[in-house]
Specification:
By secondary structure, the chain is an alpha/beta fold. The protein has 18 helices and 11 strands. The protein starts with 25 loop residues before the first strand and ends with a helix.
Length: 421
């Protein structure tokens, strides 16, 4: 837990010559996940320090809580313990579960001015799919991403491939992957631990399928197109041998790419700045290849406002969220991390506009939004996601066929979700 440095603002003399009284502080506690590499805590600390300087009557304590699941568990534990936080960045897909627990309030109930309402309508539509329920906005996008393809242009040149042309289809991924696979390197790696359901959401969207309905009370794990998508993923390792068979670790994949153990990797755009700073080779970033169509799920974290806070605290929390998602801050955040700017206004800033011009990969995740779908989000989200994760890994490791594993997961998910119909 880090207590952010607080600059104490001393009021100057008022017109009457009397010194003003010190502002009463509103204290905010914010839980924040660190799910990918890079100095995210320092970046967030810097943003909050700037906010506190501009708002000396608000004191913010950021608690860095590990990954998204850790952040949710710790924030909810604080709520139950009687020492609640006022806001948190948590999975965008936690929205149904947080609502079911009565833990959060919609931003619509806190905003009041026309300016506030315009701000709430300013975000990219695809990023709002996981934050809106029944016409109200419960989650505001901040640390958001799509899955992108990173590829080693030097390896492409060595294999006789065009370094400016990443595979644009499933067939090309296999063909190029075979040319790039040698004794010392794999053609591709796609992580199947950490967030396997997220990667699978890309395959299913590319095969023309979605995994759940908007209400979060139905899943479609056993549909033929979903089974086909998992069979294709499995074939990359077992049949085509362009990547390791079995599971591939989320946490070490970026390092494998930087160490040139794989020519291509699918990963969060949140790794972009870290790859840019650390790659010793020429690399590119591209949209994911299409099966029947292009596609990636959105991903990452949203801001949530907790119900167990005073009206004053909710207003202060709203002010913080507005600050951190403002065009200038979102632009700086995107440049510093690789996560996308969450609004068109952020890409219209001179800073991000120039950055994208100088470094075109910075626009790939945003441009992929036109092909994006919502990330898997349901009631009892943690349990349902684990069912799908287990099914994916059972198939990839050869414990079950894709059809058998997904049918089992679907039946179990239906049993969990039937009470929410």
């Amino acid at each position: 837990m880090f207590k952010l440095a607080k600059k104490i603002a001393v009021a100057g003399l008022v017109a009457t010559g009397l010194t003003s009284m010190a502002h009463a502080e509103t204290k905010l506690t914010m839980y924040y996940p660190v799910a990918v590499g890079g100095p995210l805590t320092k970046i967030v600390d810097g943003m909050i320090e700037e906010f506190e300087t501009q708002n000396p009557d608000i004191d913010v304590e950021a608690i860095y809580a590990g990954n998204y699941n850790d952040a949710r568990i710790k924030a909810l534990a604080a709520l139950k313990s009687g020492q609640p936080a006022q806001l948190s960045v948590m999975f965008s897909i936690d929205v149904h579960e947080l609502m079911d627990l009565g833990a959060i309030v919609p931003f619509d109930d806190v905003v009041s001015t026309d300016e506030d309402k315009a701000w709430l309508d300013s975000f990219y539509g695809p990023l709002m799919q996981n934050g809106k329920v029944d016409g109200k906005t419960y989650g505001v996008p901040f640390q958001r991403s799509t899955i992108v393809m990173y590829y080693n242009k030097d390896m492409f040149r060595k294999a006789g491939l065009d370094p400016e042309k990443a595979p644009s289809s499933w067939a090309e991924l296999v063909d190029m992957g075979k040319k790039l696979t040698t004794e010392d390197q794999w053609g591709a790696m796609i992580p199947s631990t950490g967030y396997p359901y997220w990667m699978f959401g890309a395959f299913t969207k590319q095969n023309g399928e979605i995994l759940m309905n908007q209400a979060g009370n139905e899943t479609y794990f056993d549909k033929a197109g979903v089974v086909e998508a998992l069979d294709y993923w499995k074939s990359l390792g077992e049949e085509h041998k362009i990547m390791p068979a079995g599971t591939i670790e989320w946490g070490t994949l970026r390092q494998n790419f930087l160490e040139q153990k794989t020519a291509m990797m699918w990963h969060s755009t949140g790794n972009l700045t870290a790859v840019k700073k650390n790659a010793s080779f020429d690399f590119g970033v591209a949209k994911l290849p299409k099966g029947k169509e292009l596609g990636s799920p959105t991903g990452g974290g949203n801001f949530y406002l907790f119900k167990k806070s005073s009206d004053e605290e909710k207003q202060a929390a709203l002010k913080l969220v507005k600050f951190m998602t403002s065009p200038d801050q979102a632009a700086n955040w995107s440049i510093a991390t690789g996560y996308m700017g969450v609004s068109q206004a952020s890409y219209d800033t001179s800073e991000l506009k120039q950055y994208v011009q100088d470094f075109p990969p910075a626009a790939v995740a945003r441009d992929q939004l036109q092909h994006a779908t919502a990330e898997l989000s349901t009631h009892k989200a943690g349990r349902v996601r684990k069912l799908l994760d287990d099914a994916i890994q059972a198939s990839l490791t050869g414990q079950m066929s894709s059809e058998e594993a997904l049918q089992k997961a679907q039946k179990q998910a239906e049993n969990i979700l039937k009470r929410y119909k």
